Amino acid sequence: QVQLVESGGGLVHTGESLRLSCVSSSTILNFQSMGWFRQAPGKQRELVATLYRSGNTDYADSVKGRSTISRDNAKNTVYLQMSGLKPEDTAMYYCNARQSNWPRPNDYWGQGTQVTVSS
Fold first, then answer.
1. What is the pLDDT along the chain (119 residues), one digit of tens a residue?
2. DSSP state of 66
């Protein structure tokens, strides 16, 4: 069973930066993609950033230019570097790993790490 453990969240002020980490119990290159999602109270979970096995990345428009997703294959760790944080970035951030499977991929989730941005 795949385990994902996030860390790095916290309370910051507007404009500050954070780096979130997600450590996988399995080799991250086994996954077709890894990503970060977030969910604010009363809102649906939304995709923040995706890093594909190929190295390609996708970002939500709301974080594009302020966030970078990266990985350290040797450490089986994926990072989300966020800068210029805004109060609307406040949410629980979840790490996701997607594994190819038939008829649908397997999705694995971490327990989440809270990011709170004060104005």
1. 899 999 999 999 999 999 999 999 999 999 999 999 999 999 999 999 999 999 999 999 999 999 999 999 999 999 999 999 999 999 999 999 999 999 999 999 999 999 999 99
2. T
For residue 110, what are its two tokens? 């971490």
Instruction: Give 37's contacts (C-beta < 8 A, 6+ positions apart).
Output: 45, 46, 47, 48, 93, 94, 96
Report the 10 Å Cβ neighbour count for 3. 12
Phi, psi of 68 (to 5 degrees): -135, 125
CB 22 within 8 A of CB 6: yes
CB-facing half-sphere around the CA of 52: CA atoms within 13 A: 6
Q: In this structure, what token pair is assigned to residue 93?
A: 């951030």
Q: Which tokens in the block code for residue 116?
A: 């709170």
SS3 content of the chain, % helix, strand, coil (to 5): 10, 55, 40
42 secondary structure, DSSP code: T
